[in-house]
Structures are given as C-alpha cells and as structure tokens.
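> call design_seq(struct)
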C-alpha cells in the first residue's frame, strides 16, 4: 500500500513537471512568435473590425481615426467624423494609441491570408488615383498640405497639378506643379467619391 502512494506521488510530481515544462515552452514559443510580428501585421488585425485608434504622424498631426482598410505598406483611415478616406504610409506613423483590448487582440495568432488589397503598395494606389483623375489633398512631413490632381506616379514620387478642389483639373485652373517623393508623404486624403473603389 505504501508503495502505491509513493508511485502515485511520483507520477503526480512527474506530471506537474511536464506541465510546467510544456507551459514554459509554450510561453517561449509565444514570445518568439510575437517577436516576429511587424507593425503592419498588427494593424491588419485592426482593419477588419474598424478599430478606433489615435494616430500620431511624422508631420506632427494627431487624428482620432477608425481603420478602414490596409495595403502592403499603407493603411486607410477615416479621421474623426470626416468620411473621406486618408491613405497613410506605415512609415509615416509615429505611434498608434489603442485601448487595451485592441492592443491584446492585435497580437493574437490569426494567420489570416491577406487578400489582393493587402498586396497593393502605396505607389500602386497612387498610380490608380492618377488614372482616375480625382482630386486629392496631400499632407507632407514638413510642409502645409497641398491640393490638386495626381498627374502621374513613378516608382518613388508623384507629380501633382495644384488647383482648387472646387474646380476640375483644367489647364487654366492649374496654379503649378509639384514633384513629391513618396518618402515625404504623411497622408493622402481622397476628395470626392473616388475612395469608394478602395
């Protein structure tokens, strides 16, 4: 009888040690998985449920925004009560403040395969806006926002025809042109109805 208690006790200790070791391995695996997460992947998890976040951008702007969509290297948000879509390169985000639940869910192991939109680069979207000829407002990292129509978008920059948003892009309404490197762009706000296609 005493031997049975001894063996039961040893089995219990061994099972407890295995459980503790398994828990330590699981915790280390989770730390390793989280260490490989990018900001983009965490933001992607917020786009599905239109999470609210307070964005601080490199140009010094702060927006209370809701996530709408996400691409390969950009996010699409609506700021405050403004329903116009703003495209923000992920590199222009200085910080994103979220509630604790959203923060924790952004590290959850979802492993969702991104769709076609998630593979569209910032340059690809800007080239599409140039093709559509819709008016935009562009905020840069160090200057006042500029308004006009994107005439063309290259590999790393765009050409913007400057004009009032109330007028269509016509030769007589264009006040000038700007070549803007993608790296200088903090955000692009799509004016009018062009954002519904994204």
């Amino acid at each position: 009888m005493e031997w049975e208690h001894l063996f039961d006790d040893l089995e219990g200790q061994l099972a407890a040690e295995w459980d503790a070791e398994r828990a330590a391995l699981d915790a280390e695996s989770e730390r390793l998985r989280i260490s490989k997460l990018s900001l983009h992947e965490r933001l992607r998890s917020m786009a599905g449920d239109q999470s609210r976040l307070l964005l601080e951008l490199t140009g010094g702007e702060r927006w209370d925004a809701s996530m709408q969509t996400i691409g390969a290297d950009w996010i699409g948000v609506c700021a405050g009560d403004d329903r116009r879509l703003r495209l923000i390169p992920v590199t222009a985000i200085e910080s994103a403040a979220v509630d604790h639940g959203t923060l924790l869910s952004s590290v959850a192991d979802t492993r969702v395969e991104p769709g076609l939109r998630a593979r569209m680069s910032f340059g690809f979207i800007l080239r599409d806006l140039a093709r559509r000829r819709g008016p935009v407002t562009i905020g840069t990292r160090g200057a006042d926002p500029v308004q006009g129509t994107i005439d063309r978008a290259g590999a790393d920059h765009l050409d913007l025809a400057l004009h009032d948003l109330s007028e269509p892009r016509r030769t007589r309404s264009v006040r000038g042109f700007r070549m803007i490197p993608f790296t200088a762009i903090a955000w692009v706000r799509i004016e009018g109805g062009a954002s519904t296609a994204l």
